[in-house]
């Protein structure tokens, strides 16, 4: 049982419990709120993962069915609410996730550790390409926030705001490093680098 509870201590569990701590909801309503708040930018979501998570949390006694709801001609939907153990679990997850830094081994940082395997020209080109993709993501998110966040309190959009700040900082850093490489940043001997390709 302890192992099963450990498996529930994920960002997706935190999403479901937070939504239900606000008020009882059916899964579709949760999906709409997740989209409006850009939670998918920071929590991995797949097709049925929300429904799977709700099922696991219900079996663990952290959420329970609170009834059903029907809107117009849509089918009846099961409404869920958080339980007291669910509220305690949410509080514990939030405290741990907010206060304990964890090294998550992102692949970009791993690639940076091996950047000297490339020629300086290639390294600068690839860093600029990443910066350009981040600029596109930053602009897309800014546009969506302008369109969909009207009326939502800032507190429910802090993760999107944080990600936008990280993107802006990374873009500035990438641009600076690419410039430094172009300006002659010291590089390991040629024997450690690939042949220069356009």
In words, what does this structure look like?
The protein is mainly alpha-helical. It has 2 domains: 1-99, Arc Repressor Mutant, subunit A, CATH 1.10.10; 107-183. The chain has helices at residues 2-7, 11-22, 27-36, 49-59, 84-99, 107-112, 120-148, 158-182; strands at 63-69, 77-82. Helix 2 crosses helix 5 (84-99) and helix 7 packs antiparallel against helix 8. It is elongated and about 65 Å long. This is DNA-binding transcriptional regulator, PadR family. InterPro entries: Tscrpt_reg_PadR_N, WH-like_DNA-bd_sf, WH_DNA-bd_sf. Residues 16-91 form the Transcription regulator PadR N-terminal domain. Keywords: DNA-binding. It holds the Pfam family PadR.
- Rg, Cα atoms, Å: 22 Å
Instruction: Supply the CATH superfamily name of the largest domain.
Output: Winged helix-like DNA-binding domain superfamily/Winged helix DNA-binding domain
Biggest β-sheet strands, sense, barrel: 2 strands, antiparallel
The amount of helix comes to 55-70%
Strand elements, count:
2
The total count of helices amounts to 8
* Structural category: mainly alpha
Given this structure, which CATH class of the largest domain is correct? Mainly Alpha
Give the neighbour order of strands across the main sheet.
1-2
Protein name: DNA-binding transcriptional regulator, PadR family
Keywords: DNA-binding
GO molecular function, one term: DNA binding
Pfam families: PadR
